Amino acid sequence: MARVTASVYTSHVPAIGAAMDLGKTHEPYWQPLFAGYEPSRAWMKANTPDVIFLVYNDHANAFSLDIVPTFAIGCAETFAIADEGWGPRPVPAVRGHPELAAHIAQSVIQDDFDLTIVNRMDVDHGLTVPLSLLFGKVDAWPCRVIPFPVNVVLYPVPSGRRCFQLGRALRKAIASFDAPLKVQVWGTGGMSHQLQGPRAGLINREFDMAFLDQLIADPEALSRKPHIEYVREAGSEGIELVMWLIARGAMSDSPPRVVHRFYHVPASNTAVGHLVLENT
Question: In CATH, what class is 3-278?
């Protein structure tokens, strides 16, 4: 049967993708950030999964503000790279896994989570930047990817508790798929940042580090953190962190092994957090 082997967590700052695409990774500003991902890249080469279930938020590229699904699952065979206003990133198209995606949708919907089924969708930096960070520049992504956009852009957004419970339902769905697939679940977005208004540029290192600590040690308690606390302490875009709880919920109940942990500020105007956890 399929199984969740690990979870990966990372910010998906668009400027990180631009730095990679323009060959700026060794410049003094960017070098410390990319150095922080080198241990995870080495680990990923030795632990490449068959499928990545990648949780991210669309940035008005696949969905306009006319229709905003709370949870959506990409069930297509391939996903093109979105043009976010300056041309698509020069990265490979994403190969999906329609069979596993359809199975997950069936199982999770029967467990009372309403998913929007998406059979054609372009994927933006929310998905491609994490792939680039962990795999580097490649001619083709080394595994299949199931995109899972979550609405953290237009209120109301799902609660942390709902996201954590969805991760539990996702774990059950994957474990019931009749093929020996190794699956990783990635949670992306965050950490603390605000892009507009009087608090633009806000970064809260203390909040971010406490979030990482609790995500590892007590995710169920963390899932009860109210939205207003994310916004107050981590900025308006800090609410993206609820997506990390989907990935954490998909892990086993045993304490995970921390493969790598990294935190860096700033990257553009954002705090970057990164974590790799293995099931034990």
Answer: alpha beta
